[in-house]
Specification:
This protein has 293 residues and is α/β, with parallel strands linked by helices. Helices cover 39% and strands 15% of the residues.
């Protein structure tokens, strides 16, 4: 009897030890944005968001400062993942950023409000069930974009959002259009209620998102000088091509410079690493830099 109790106590101590070790290890690796170095964090109006620069930022680079109209800050915004990014997400975005490195522009990865990640944790709130395209989160990302633009001293900001990040980009265009000059929407759930209905049919259960704003509701607020390219993979069974296509059709009807592109053979995930993406980003940047500041 005593031996059994002893073994139970030893097991309990081991569980507590390894649980504590896991917590300590996580806190040592993933720091909150307030504890990160300045270049790894950006104020968002209510707190800060974690930032991962893929290119070294040199505020004293006089050549860049002398020609700001030729500089475009490329900001990468991730999709939904229950409030937490894993290393595999970061690795995929790192590959995407590397594919864009030939464009010779500053590229930064932005961690959405409330998300934890291996590169730092952002302050704010994220929903473990992903329903968090809220007015506050849209505002926080928009403010962070403006602060990043000031930090990098560029005249243009191009936001590349994937999935939920694309929805937030589309919402910023309509709610805080001065925060960015153009956007590339990859696999965009641009009509949230229709998308949720589709996902419910796929899963056999309906999951409405009462917290989230719908990009279609603010499309008429987007200035016509914004440049937008929406790209969806032909094999994407999550955010179906017609979701972004319908958004672009409405935007073009309102006089906006918007275009939809169907990426052959790409699905919802591998669209990030599509070989045609760098050229599309380059073309979008050319349009942006040829427009007045």
């Amino acid at each position: 009897m005593m031996n059994a109790i002893g073994r139970m106590l030893i097991h309990l101590v081991q569980v507590l030890f390894f649980t504590t070790l896991a917590v300590i290890s996580h806190s040592a690796v993933a720091q909150g944005c307030t504890a990160l170095p300045q270049e790894r964090s950006i104020p968002d109006g209510k707190g800060c968001l974690a930032v991962w620069p893929f290119s070294p930022h040199d505020a004293t680079n006089h050549e860049k400062k002398a020609q700001p109209n030729g500089r475009v800050l490329i900001v990468l915004l991730h999709g939904d993942s229950g409030g937490g990014l894993a290393q595999r997400h970061i690795d995929r975005w790192a590959k995407a950023a590397n594919n864009l490195s030939g464009l010779d522009q500053d590229i930064v990865f932005l961690v959405r409000p409330g998300y934890s990640s291996p590169v730092g944790d952002s302050s704010g709130w994220a929903n473990q069930r992903d329903d968090d395209y809220t007015a506050e989160n849209v505002e926080r990302v928009a403010t962070a974009l403006q602060n990043l633009k000031a930090r990098y001293q560029t005249s243009k900001v191009l936001l590349i959002g994937h999935s939920g990040g694309a929805a937030i980009a589309a919402l910023i265009l309509g709610r805080r259009p001065t925060a960015l000059d153009g956007a590339i929407l990859l696999g965009c759930p641009c009509d949230v209620p229709v998308w949720r209905q589709h996902r419910g049919l796929q899963r056999g259960r309906q999951t409405q998102w009462p917290n989230s704003l719908n990009p279609m509701d603010v499309i008429d607020k987007i200035p016509t000088n914004k440049v937008v390219l929406a790209i969806t993979g032909s094999e994407d069974d999550n955010t179906l091509p017609q979701f972004a296509s319908a958004w672009v059709t409405s935007a073009r009807t309102l006089g906006m410079n918007a275009k939809f592109l169907l990426a052959s053979g790409q699905d919802h995930t591998n669209i990030l690493l599509w070989s045609g993406l760098p050229e599309q980003v380059k073309q979008t940047m050319t349009v942006l830099t040829s427009a007045p500041p």
